[in-house]
Structures are given as structure tokens and as C-alpha cells.
UniProtKB/TrEMBL annotation:
Keywords of the record: Membrane, Transmembrane, Transmembrane helix
Transmembrane regions: 100-121, 127-145, 152-171, 183-200, 220-244, 256-273, 294-313, 319-340, 352-374, 386-407, 427-445
Protein name: DUF4153 domain-containing protein
Length: 448
């Protein structure tokens, strides 16, 4: 077994350990260090990678037994971790309070940056292009502080960030033009990849770390949505009460509350995901099992609608854009489901449903590609059409390979880890395509 396969084995082991609720992320890191030490000791005696890994795993003991032992020794840990701050700072150190202070400072900083952008940046298009540049550096900064990134990794993040910032502001975009809109839509994808590099501590080549980031992204969306809904309810009730006494707070909402609350909530949600991961039962399996069959029904309905439209050249452009959004949503759901699954479990009914979801998405994508090629043949090229065509080709490759690997897994010919590796190794392709759209499309199409 090559060293790459050894790393894959350790990543699978780490993912399995992380699903044990009694074991915190810090404990997982410690166990992984012990595992690597055991592997190195066995390799020093002449064992190959596979033999060294198996012996090391046996020396660590059964993982279920390890989890139960942690639960017995720290029976109150799970309840204590449900509280955001420790009752006695002397016992846990001042680190949680220090982290909270840093998170709040970064949240306020993101709000101030957005407020400054609203105040000083003229033109809606310019502000839209820079919105990600105003917010995501603070989230990336939190990851950099949390992971204690080396100067080399920080520099590797700052350079592409600076290149993107210069391009977005130096390019002579036509106001309201196609290339400007494409830059607004694709720049956050590139910025999110840079944030992901910080999240994984610079270990972007690790399949397990990339899957951790995919899992984090899904959890972040859930936490952010909950915070947004809760904040909207509280704000609405407050405004309703104040309106009864004749107070008009709409300018305050537009000029202060929203500019600070939305970017600040993103940073706070990231902190909550970091603080509470592996403490309570992961909600990802529940969500994916609920929404997968619903999404399949939606895709079947979409196929029926597209079939009823008739000539593909007559399909409305807005409908094609909406279909692209649906396919991206399906891909996110698929990735979230894969990240939440126990890679050691045997194939089941839900895996069959996942295959049906992929097949339905492939059918929709094929119809979309046909419609796009028909429109290009009928009306010619444009930046929007080429960008959409490229995205759909990427989705086609991603979904087709996913379906193939899923069939192999269901037939017992491939391990589930092969399906996991394909997802994490293909994801950077989307970010690269987004970078091409942002940096190359404007000059290629004359900044129209």
C-alpha cells in the first residue's frame, strides 16, 4: 500500500472517530497523533504501510470501546459543552472567552466594512463586486487564527485574494453588463475556496480535510439560516411594537441593523459550528433523508415541464438560469448527504435513493445542455451562455462519475470512500472555473 493509500486509511479512520459524540475534535487530533506514532513505530520494524496501519489500529483498541471509555471518564462533558461558556474559567482557562471576544470583534469588523462600503462605494455594481471582499476576509481571518496558520499558508491565501481584488476593481466593466454580473456571481466561489484553505489549516490535499470543509459549509448554511430567521422574527416584533407608539425605525434597519447583522451573523454562525460540532447528534442525516425524496420529486416535475415546453430554442433564458440554480442545489444536497454518511456502513435503501437523485439530475442536465447548445446555434455566443454551458458541462462530468461510482458501491465492487474522494477532489474544479469566469471572461468579451 502506497503512502497515499495510508493517508486515505487514516482519513477514513478519522471520519469514523469523529462520529463518536463523546470524543471532541481535540481528542480526535490527539488520537490521530497516537495512531501516526504507532504506524511510524511499526514501519521502523520493517512492516509495510498496510501492516503497520492494521497493527496500530489494533493497539489503539476498538473505537466503540474507546468512545464508551471517554463517555465514562467524562460523563458530564457533553452537558458542559452544550453551554457556550464554561462555568468556571479557571478550570477551562480563558480561551473560550478569548475566542468569543475575537469572534465578536471580527463580526463587528465585517459589519463596519459593509457599512463603509455602503457609505463610500458609489454604484451598485461596484459594491456588489466588492461585497465578498468586504465580508469573507473576516471569516478567513477567524479560521487563520483558529488553525494557527503558518506564514506560508497565509501568503498563499493573500496572493490570490489580492489578484481577485485588483481584477474586480481595475477592470473597466460596463455598468450592468454581462461580464460584471458574472464576476459578481462567481467571485464568492473563489473567495470561499480561499476560506476553505484556511479552514483546513493549509492541508488542502487531504481528502478528509476537504470533506470536513464540505460538511462545515452545510452546517454553516443551517446555522446562518436559523440565526437569520430568529433575527427576523425578533426585529419584526420589535418594529411592530415601536410602530404602535409612532416610531419609524425603517432607516435604522436599512442603514445600521442589516449592514451589521448579516455579515456579523455569518462569522458568529461559523463560530457556533466550530464550537458545537460533534456535541449533539448531527442533523445532516435527518435533513438529507427528508429532502432527498422531495428533491427527486421536484426534478421529475421539472423534466415534465421541460418536456411540455416543446422546442428547446424557445425555452426562456430565465428558466435556464433557474434550472442551473436547482442543479447546484441538488449537488450541494448530494455532497452534504455523502459527507454525513458512515463510510463503513453497508449499502442501503438511502444509497439507492441517492442514485435515483443523481440519475434525475443527469436527465435535467442533459436537457439543459441541449437547450443551451440549441440557443447558441440559434442566437450565437455570449458571456452568459458560455459561462452557463461550462457550468453544466462540469455538473455533467461530476454527476456522471458520481452515478458510476454509486453503482459500483451498490454492487459491492467499490468502497464508499472512492465516492467520497471523487467529490472532494472534483470540488476545486468549480472554483477554478469561477476564477476563469472572473479573470478571463471580461477581457475576452470586451468587458461588456
Amino acid at each position: 500500500m502506497e503512502h497515499a493509500e495510508l493517508e486515505a486509511q487514516i482519513d477514513r479512520w478519522r471520519g469514523y472517530v469523529q462520529r463518536r459524540q463523546a470524543i471532541s475534535p481535540a481528542d480526535v487530533d490527539e488520537l490521530e497523533d497516537h495512531l501516526r506514532e504507532q504506524v511510524a513505530d511499526r514501519q521502523a520494524t520493517g512492516l509495510d504501510d498496510e501492516e503497520a496501519f492494521l497493527v496500530a489500529i489494533k493497539r489503539l483498541g476498538n473505537l466503540d470501546a474507546v468512545s464508551r471509555e471517554f463517555a465514562r471518564e467524562h460523563s458530564d462533558r457533553l452537558w458542559k459543552q452544550l453551554v457556550l461558556m464554561p462555568e468556571d474559567p479557571a478550570d477551562a482557562g480563558a480561551t473560550p472567552w478569548r475566542e468569543l471576544a475575537i469572534v465578536l470583534a471580527l463580526a463587528v469588523g465585517a459589519g463596519l466594512a459593509v457599512k463603509a462600503g455602503l457609505t463610500w462605494i458609489e454604484g451598485g455594481g461596484v459594491l456588489a463586486r466588492n461585497l465578498g471582499l468586504l465580508v469573507l476576509p473576516f471569516l478567513t481571518g477567524y479560521f487563520a487564527w483558529k488553525r494557527r496558520l503558518s506564514a506560508r499558508v497565509v501568503l498563499g491565501i493573500l496572493v490570490p485574494f489580492a489578484v481577485l481584488a485588483v481584477a474586480l476593481n481595475a477592470y473597466p466593466f460596463t455598468s450592468g453588463g454581462s461580464t460584471e454580473l458574472l464576476a459578481v456571481l462567481h467571485a464568492p466561489v473563489v473567495l470561499w475556496l480561499l476560506a476553505g484553505i484556511a479552514y483546513v489549516g493549509g492541508r488542502w490535499r487531504s481528502d478528509g480535510r476537504r470533506m470536513d470543509f464540505a460538511r462545515f459549509t452545510g452546517e454553516l448554511v443551517i446555522y446562518f439560516t436559523l440565526l437569520a430567521l430568529g433575527g427576523a422574527v425578533l426585529t419584526g416584533l420589535t418594529f411592530a411594537v415601536l410602530q404602535l407608539v409612532g416610531a419609524d425605525l425603517e432607516p435604522v434597519l436599512e442603514n445600521w441593523i442589516l449592514p451589521f447583522a448579516v455579515p456579523g451573523a455569518l462569522v458568529v454562525a461559523a463560530w457556533l459550528v466550530e464550537a458545537k460540532q460533534n456535541v449533539v447528534e448531527n442533523i445532516a442525516p435527518v435533513l438529507t433523508r427528508v429532502f432527498t425524496p422531495l428533491t427527486i420529486a421536484m426534478l421529475v416535475a421539472v423534466l415534465a415541464v421541460l418536456a411540455a415546453v416543446g422546442g428547446l430554442a424557445e425555452v426562456d433564458r430565465g428558466l435556464l438560469i433557474l434550472m442551473d440554480a436547482i442543479l447546484v442545489l441538488v449537488l450541494c444536497l448530494l455532497l452534504y448527504a455523502i459527507s454525513a454518511r458512515n463510510s463503513l456502513a453497508h449499502p442501503g435503501v438511502f444509497d439507492v435513493l441517492q442514485l435515483v437523485l443523481v440519475a434525475a439530475a443527469l436527465a435535467v442536465d442533459a436537457v439543459m445542455l441541449t437547450a443551451m447548445l440549441t440557443r447558441i446555434a440559434e442566437f450565437g455566443f455570449s458571456p452568459n451562455k458560455i459561462a452557463a454551458l461550462g457550468l453544466n458541462l462540469l455538473l455533467l462530468i461530476h454527476l456522471a462519475r458520481t452515478g458510476w461510482l454509486t453503482v459500483g458501491f451498490l454492487r459491492g465492487r467499490r468502497p464508499f470512500t472512492a465516492l467520497e474522494r471523487w467529490q472532494t477532489r472534483y470540488l476545486p474544479v468549480y472554483a477554478l472555473w469561477a476564477a476563469v469566469v472572473v479573470l478571463a471572461f471580461p477581457p475576452l468579451f470586451g468587458f461588456i
